[in-house]
Amino acid sequence: MANHVSSLKRARQTITKTAVNRANKSKLRGTLRAMREAIAGGDHKSATEAYRSTASILDKSVQKGVLHKNTASRYKGRLNARVKALVVKAA
Fold this sequence. Notes:
This protein is mostly helical. 87% of the residues lie in helices and 0% in strands.
């Protein structure tokens, strides 16, 4: 356990930041899960709406330091390709 005042403060800050990061990651994972379920449902309109919100959350997670920008870009590209494939499959 920390003994110095500065290390005690650091320990408190770590707990706070860990909670924020955990909440952000959880929100991101939940959004990705909902997006995959929308794609699995096969409805292009709902999948497109889910993609918009998911892309927004991915971009915010990059700004908050939860994801690397290339990782978020890769996720968005793959999800967008799956949404576009719904249109081809339906036609």
